[in-house]
UniProtKB/TrEMBL annotation:
<dbReference type="GO" id="GO:0030170">
    <property type="term" value="F:pyridoxal phosphate binding"/>
</dbReference>
<dbReference type="GO" id="GO:0006520">
    <property type="term" value="P:amino acid metabolic process"/>
</dbReference>
<feature type="domain" description="Aminotransferase class I/classII large">
    <location>
        <begin position="97"/>
        <end position="313"/>
    </location>
</feature>
<dbReference type="InterPro" id="IPR015422">
    <property type="entry name" value="PyrdxlP-dep_Trfase_small"/>
</dbReference>
<protein>
    <recommendedName>
        <fullName>Aminotransferase class I/classII large domain-containing protein</fullName>
    </recommendedName>
</protein>
<dbReference type="GO" id="GO:0008483">
    <property type="term" value="F:transaminase activity"/>
</dbReference>
<dbReference type="InterPro" id="IPR015424">
    <property type="entry name" value="PyrdxlP-dep_Trfase"/>
</dbReference>
<dbReference type="InterPro" id="IPR050596">
    <property type="entry name" value="AspAT/PAT-like"/>
</dbReference>
<comment type="similarity">
    <text>Belongs to the class-I pyridoxal-phosphate-dependent aminotransferase family.</text>
</comment>
<keyword id="KW-0663">Pyridoxal phosphate</keyword>
<dbReference type="InterPro" id="IPR015421">
    <property type="entry name" value="PyrdxlP-dep_Trfase_major"/>
</dbReference>
<keyword id="KW-0808">Transferase</keyword>
<keyword id="KW-0032">Aminotransferase</keyword>
<dbReference type="Pfam" id="PF00155">
    <property type="entry name" value="Aminotran_1_2"/>
</dbReference>
<dbReference type="InterPro" id="IPR004839">
    <property type="entry name" value="Aminotransferase_I/II_large"/>
</dbReference>
């Protein structure tokens, strides 16, 4: 530890100056500590965020406001939107904010892409109730799309019977989880925030975590997974691929090996929501997507469930946003219904999308580097950057503090803690390996990205200039949401709502 002392006259002066320096250091440390505590206590106050199982006395009985119903905890994006609203964000003034927490791609025009459709004809018979698995024509179109894209050379082809249509990713995941039995289900950390709720709500399946780390490029070790299957009796593996939030993807031989586990008694559930958000190093790699469908040998025998979604992969191209398809072992799964329209990807559009998003990724990485924020591992897929804050001075190295400080500059990112899937809230998340991370989305348009990066620059500048003393101050408490406290739950039938 070094203290830089100015020139002094006497021994007592030296003692005094050392004392001052130590006092100053302690003050700084305690200010940094205080900022972390404030940010963490705001997090703890949100419904469902109390740790459970660690210290039973910490369970908040007030959280069970509706008899028999427990708050599941808010997903990262919802918590962050609530915090942003407490800091003045509203949907009316959202253009003044940089929402780099956004889990959706931009929906405006994409350079060099064909125009997006802006109206659709709705025939009268499409207003009928849709079957719960989706209309047959749409299921057929999805099967054909998968066969054309990934299985041209294969004799085993998907048919409409392998496909179910559901109203959104979370709904699809929930339906899949609902049919998983009393088995060990393997998942990895970090991964998509919604798995936390899925794995905690469905109590029959027993979640078994594997922590991925940067040293192994956040890669799932397939050989280790095989050993875990043998030794721990894992029956189901759940993963997003490409992975949110690390932006890494299992592909080629590794993906083939992972799929092969589906022929050896394990069910592999792959959430391929970002299969088109792939950024090749060379021009020849553009225009391709990645899916496990390519490596499935027999679509009716291999136990591989694919969850895909139009919300990201065909954002703005398709007329039924929110729908999602799942190709599964025949008859094994029934998912929620959604009326829809036959579709196919427009390759020119997907190509333009990939080029545009790769340019946005490079732009953000470049600007972060200029700010001294070197990213451990550049994303090769998705539209997220998993930013390690460990090298920043305390308390900015805490993802929750970094997030709160950015809110003051009208910018939203997602604290890393939300990607540490902790279904039963058994571990103390503040010891999490994700605590020193934030996820930055490059889904929004470039102007928004720049506004957010300017805000990051300002937070860093201020931290350098005045140190931690203003951090942790002026954090506005979130209002509790009426919905959390209310017994009035409105369940909307999306099959009808989508037509309204
Ligand atoms: C890995 C992953 N799967 C699925 C979804 C989409 O779910 P939904 O359509 O419910 O927004 C997301 C959204 O962020 C995601 O990151």
């Amino acid at each position: 530890m070094h203290f830089h002392l100015p020139r002094v006259k006497s021994f007592t002066d030296i003692i005094e100056q050392v004392r001052d320096a130590i006092r100053h250091k302690h003050e700084k440390e305690s200010e940094a500590h205080q900022a972390s505590s404030v940010a963490e206590s705001i997090f703890r106050q949100a419904a469902g965020h109390q740790p459970k199982g660690v210290n039973p006395e910490m369970v908040n009985p007030d959280e069970e406001t509706v008899p028999g119903i427990e708050h599941p905890g808010s997903t990262g994006v919802i918590y962050c939107s609530d915090r942003a609203m407490a800091n003045g964000f509203s949907y009316a003034n959202s253009h003044e904010w940089a929402n780099l927490g956004q889990g959706a791609p931009e929906v405006g025009p994409i350079p060099d892409a064909p125009a997006r459709p802006n109206s659709i004809p709705i025939p009268v018979d499409s207003l009928e109730y849709a079957p719960t698995t989706g209309v047959k024509e749409l299921r057929e179109a999805v099967a054909n799309l998968y066969n054309d894209t990934y299985r041209k050379e294969k004799t085993s082809k998907y048919t409409y019977e392998n496909v179910c249509i559901v109203p959104g990713g979370r709904a699809g995941l929930t339906r899949v989880a609902a049919v998983i039995g009393d088995v060990y289900t393997s998942y990895q950390i970090p991964d998509y925030t919604a798995y936390d709720q899925v794995l905690s709500v469905f109590k029959r399946l027993v979640p078994v975590p594997t922590a991925l780390d940067v040293k192994s490029k956040y890669k799932l070790d397939i050989e280790q997974t095989k050993r875990d299957i043998r030794n721990q009796g894992l029956a189901v593996i759940l993963a997003s691929n490409p992975r949110n939030p690390t932006g890494q993807v299992i592909k080629g031989h590794d993906l083939k090996e992972l799929v092969a586990l589906g022929r050896e008694g394990t069910t592999v559930i792959l959430d391929e929501f970002y299969s088109w958000y792939i950024y090749p190093d060379h021009d020849s790699g553009f225009g391709k997507s990645i899916s496990s469908a390519k490596y499935i040998e027999d679509v009716n025998e291999d136990s591989v469930v694919i969850i895909d979604g139009l919300t990201k992969n065909a954002a703005g191209r398709d007329s039924s946003p929110g729908s999602c398809q799942s190709c599964s072992r025949k008859g094994a799964i029934q998912l929620g219904g959604h009326s829809g329209f036959a579709y196919a990807y427009d390759l020119n559009y997907q190509l333009a999308l990939q080029r545009h998003f790769k340019a946005k990724r490079d732009h953000v990485l470049h600007r972060l580097r200029d700010l001294g924020l070197e990213v451990d591992l550049a994303p090769t897929s998705t539209f997220y950057i998993w930013l390690n804050l460990e090298k920043l001075p305390e308390p900015l190295n805490n993802g929750l503090v970094f997030f709160e400080e950015l809110l003051k500059f009208k910018t939203i990112v997602i604290p890393g803690i939300f990607f540490d899937i902790n279904p039963a809230h058994r571990r103390n998340l503040f010891n999490s390996p994700c605590h020193h991370f934030v996820r930055i989305s490059f889904g929004p348009p470039i102007e928004d990205l720049d506004r957010g990066l300017d805000a990051i620059a300002m937070v860093l500048k201020q931290a350098k200039k005045v140190g931690p003393q203003n951090m942790g101050r002026g954090y506005v408490a979130s209002e509790s949401r009426d919905l959390d406290r209310s017994l009035t739950l409105i369940l909307l039938d999306i099959r009808k709502a989508s037509m309204a």
